[in-house]
Write a structure and sequence with these properties.
alpha/beta; nine-stranded mixed β-sheet; Spore Coat Polysaccharide Biosynthesis Protein SpsA, Chain A; 9 helices
Length: 257
């Protein structure tokens, strides 16, 4: 049995996925791992290049794009590991992330999910949400540039102004990189695939907390080439808003400002 399984979902992310796989294979030692790539009908030669350069990677090809959570759930019956990594194709790293995070979970049985510090390519920190989504935080995220008070709310949502140098409990674990106990991922039936994209990670975090702690681990970092698609393309903005509403309705948060 592999200690760690890894799943990455791609859709026309050829360059990014090859860089991610290079990071994994060049920097992972002392850990048995397996890698799954779920390709959502890419047209950029992703599948052929992965097969050529990384023949040990198991590729699952779909003929459609039903979303982030749906695609990640396709590996649930295939993985047999202690810990499972959900990771975006635009992640890279140059340290032995898999070993450090799997060791942390092994040493802390009450922790269910762990996520590292996430950095921009320029080395600055990406302040991603860490508190449970609420209407006030979500409004602040879209409108913070217009108001200092909204900017402060956004900072509270991401815990930007807190000195996080040691592992700390969080509510919202980013789907761009998380390690979860495989047993729990299976028990939860993975992501709620009613979320096409966005908030499926917050939803998974909330459901997982019934079984243990969700931890931000700032002692190790990965780099994320974050594009914030929902702030640049109207299509993704609508998807973001739709998922936000689904989350708030599901958890009865529409009235909780």
């Amino acid at each position: 049995m592999n200690r760690v399984s890894i799943c990455v979902v791609t859709h026309n992310n050829c360059n990014e996925i090859l860089n991610l796989l290079k990071s994994i294979y060049e920097n992972t030692v002392e850990v048995n791992f397996s890698v799954f790539v779920v390709d959502n009908n890419s047209s950029d030669n992703t599948v052929n290049l992965i097969s050529k350069y990384y023949p040990n990677v198991e590729i699952i090809k779909t003929n459609c794009n039903k979303g982030f959570g749906y695609a990640h759930n396709l590996v649930i019956d295939k993985i047999d590991s202690d810990f499972h990594i959900i990771i975006n194709p635009d992640i890279s790293f140059n340290v032995n992330v898999l070993k450090q995070l799997s060791d942390y979970l092994s040493e802390n049985n009450d922790v269910i999910i762990v996520t590292p510090k996430i950095l921009h390519p320029n080395g600055s920190e990406q302040y991603l949400p860490k508190r449970e989504p609420k209407i006030k935080y979500l409004m602040a995220g879209k409108l913070e540039r217009f108001s200092n008070s909204l900017s402060k709310l956004r900072s509270k949502y991401t815990m930007e102004n807190e000195c996080l140098e040691e592992p700390v409990d969080i509510d919202f674990c980013t789907g761009c990189f998380m390690m979860i106990r495989t047993e729990i991922f299976k028990k939860l039936n993975g992501f709620d695939d009613r979320f096409f994209m966005y908030f499926e990670d917050a939803d998974l975090s909330k459901r997982a907390k019934k079984f243990g702690r969700v931890i931000f681990f700032p002692k190790i970092y990965v780099t994320h080439s974050w594009e914030r698609a929902s702030s640049k393309k109207i299509k993704f903005l609508f998807i973001h808003i739709s998922s936000m509403i689904k989350y708030l309705i599901k958890w009865n948060k529409l009235r909780g400002f």
